[in-house]
Amino acid sequence: MIIRAHRVQLIWSPLVGWVLLTCTTPQAAAQIVVTPPGGVTAPVAAPDNVTPASPAGPTGATGFPTVAPSELSITPPPAAPAVPLPVLPAGTTVQNPSTQLVPGTSDIVGGYGTLVGGGGAAPGGEETGYTLGSFRLYPQLEVTVGYDTNVFAQSASQGIVASPYTSIQPSLSLRSDWLNNSLGLLLSGGFGFYSAAPTQNYQNYIALADGRFDIREDTYVTWSGGFKRTTEALGSPNVAFAQAPTVDDTFPFTATLYHRFNRLTVEAGGTITRYLFTDYSTITSQGLSGPERDRFEYEERIRFGYDLSDDVTFYLAPSLKQIRYDEYVDSSGQIRNADGATINVGAMWKLSPTSILDGSVGYTSQTTQGGGGTTGDFTFGLRGSWNGYEPLTIRPTITRDINQSALSNYKNTVSTTFGFDFAYVLHSDWTAIGGASYTTEQYQPVEGLAGVPPRTDTFVRGSLGLLYTIRPQVQIGPVFEYTQGSSTDPVNGPSYSRELFSIRLIARP
What we know:
Helices cover 2% and strands 52% of the residues. By secondary structure, the protein is mainly β. A hairpin with a 2-residue loop joins strand 3 (130-132) and strand 4.
């Protein structure tokens, strides 16, 4: 059974495909433009040629922003069954454990913004966008007006600051309409304004391109690259407190070669990501400064898949990763360069045309140079979408990864997230949306530092909204979002609760 587009489609995006199931934040407190656990924005429908990606999340098991090969191709590999993902709110993805509830962000500017091509129909079956030769242009505007009860994500003893806010997010995507090969372009921005907390105002940008080059019917190359500016939201996991948040400029590039041998598929590729951080206020002594976090991250991966049937695919996915910081030795005398290895085994199961699950288990290790020791742990993941009951779509998410730490006394963190999000059609024009997640961030102390105990931060998030379709291209509705942070370190760790009340408007010509 499928969700009927004219009942629940609140915004059709040709930019978002399986990346919605593997990555990933809304935007308060200055704002990472990625969708957080339990966050909510406008529903986004995936195209009908999208195939699930390999088991990597937005951050790989060793803290690298991992983008699976099929996430970077406009046309998915035929190795796995093509599944049209059902309509879901763009802001309800719960895959990224290192983000914060931020109002007004959609997945169009989340993650690495895969430019997945696919249908351009509006909720009522009308075509959206504009034809430009052999391309189609898709503009969109999202405006959110709301109230944040705790802009700086602080405890009551530190003083709570509340503020009205406005978030504006325009975007333009251009997608090719070719029989062979493909090309996609995305330009997007996110601009936030806080009347009572101007230090939290932000300006984020994304400029991305991706494409596919068909060599033969069973062989092709995909690539993706561009620029992304995000702002680290205060109160997020693995973010050091500062009066004004740190800005992260990211330059990712990925290339992947795909080939099919009957039921066996092989994908081999690599990713290079450049990170540059800029601080706009003094970071506390527990955090690393921007220049100390500047780095290159590399990943080499290969994925072997076997189609047991048309609906079930098993895969084996080993990878190698390297982290190289600009400052070989930071101000604390630490060497943070690291090398990692990961191996995952998993399966994708297509339960129905609109339901699919992708689960994996594995082991990863990361060794820090200069005697920093090795962090090793079992990792696991579950992504997918269930639509067994026509009006209801549920997307569960379970992730466990090792990430780089932004704190000076800790070399990395083990992040674990359990979450889900949903969309439920109450009426032909009304849809309830929401989600919830539980995240733990286990910090691993730098080897040899005395008096630095292990630390665990915990974040609980949830959201609930009701959206009304005025017409196929215009939707509006209220959204409530809640997050709470706590820590085993009562002095330096988070201790806050936060509510966001907003009205969201989405327009699509």
